[in-house]
Amino acid sequence: MKRKVLLIYTGGTIGMEKDYETGSLRAFDFSNIFEKMPEMKLMECEVFVHPFATPLDSSDMGPGEWKIIANYIHKNYNEYDGFLILHGTDTMSYTASALSFMLKGLRKPVILTGSQLPIGDLRTDAKENLLTSLYYASLYEDQEAIIQEVAIYFEYKLLRGNRTLKYSAEYFDAYASPNYPILGQSGVHLNIDKDNLYRSNPNIEFHVDNHISEDILFCRIFPGMNLNHFKELPTMKVLILQVFGSGTIFSNEKTIETLQAIRNNGTEIVVVSQCISGGISFGKYENSNIFSRIGAISGKDITAESAITKAMHLIDNPNYIGSFSENFAKCVCGEITE
């Protein structure tokens, strides 16, 4: 029996071709993908294509589009064995992270991929990324999907979606998962490290939690930063601070006064690291103790992309028991190391 994979094309470089008159890239009609890539017809799975009516640059992808994708997966969940989302590379980690929080009780693969070069280029990475992603999206064993989470496949590596970040705009090997090992790697064989795979609570049936709040601000701390600008900010539900190293910030009375005032206004403060690898450890250095004193939340080893989408998902979400701080500190779907 051939597995059925639903391919959702949202836009991005992978679905573009060069207009040789103007030299510019333009989106082609993705419903014709089988003509562009006849080798897809040789796959051991059946591929069904659902393109967005208007292909979007990844910089235009946001909460509205995340909901469209999540709801479309929900609508077709029982009809297909796996799902492949083609997406622009710049914000793919945000979409993968958001979907990981929204798709509850997932038991089937949801793979995202894209490319650095258009599918029609001679040196393109698009074909390998697309074909191998289809294999991963249709990978089953004993009638059970091997991958049961949201993942990104790029340049021979399968990565947990909410652990990824895009670290290169130039190289084909554009994504990294610095604080979690890879889920699999493709070569002559498709390798999977089953010990690294995520499994949902078996008592939770698949459903979509569409709750997303945009009442959030992300701010990177830098030396010499004028904290007076914080006083000009409107009140928000969550402020994510990206601080130095394992959780330090310049230590003076002004810092304490400013951050405490933000907390007193009812804003939750989440602290994440500017370092790609490693995480937050309150108390390791004296200059991190301020966050414990004001009741800030440690982001541990979460990525910035995952911290943002997790916060958006948790703010005032009626489907969670407990406070925002309690739920953010927990591992919801493999996004942090506990």
What sort of overall outline do the alpha carbons produce when their principal axes are compared? globular
What ranges have pLDDT less than 50 throughout 5 or more consecutive residues? Answer: none
For the record, give the distance between the C-alpha atoms at the N and C termini, rounded to a whole number: 40 Å
The total number of structural domains is 2
Please state the structural category.
alpha/beta
CATH class of the largest domain: Alpha Beta
Oligomer: single chain
Protein architecture, described:
Belongs to the asparaginase 1 family. Keywords: Hydrolase. 22% of the residues lie in helices and 22% in strands. The protein is an alpha/beta fold. It has two domains: 3-208, 3-Layer(aba) Sandwich (Rossmann fold); 216-329, Rossmann fold, CATH 3.40.50. The strands form six sheets. Strands 4-1-5-7-10-11-14-15 form an eight-stranded mixed beta sheet, sandwiched between helices. A four-stranded parallel beta sheet has the order 17-18-19-20. Helix 3 packs parallel to helix 7. The two termini are 40 Å apart. The relative contact order is 0.12.
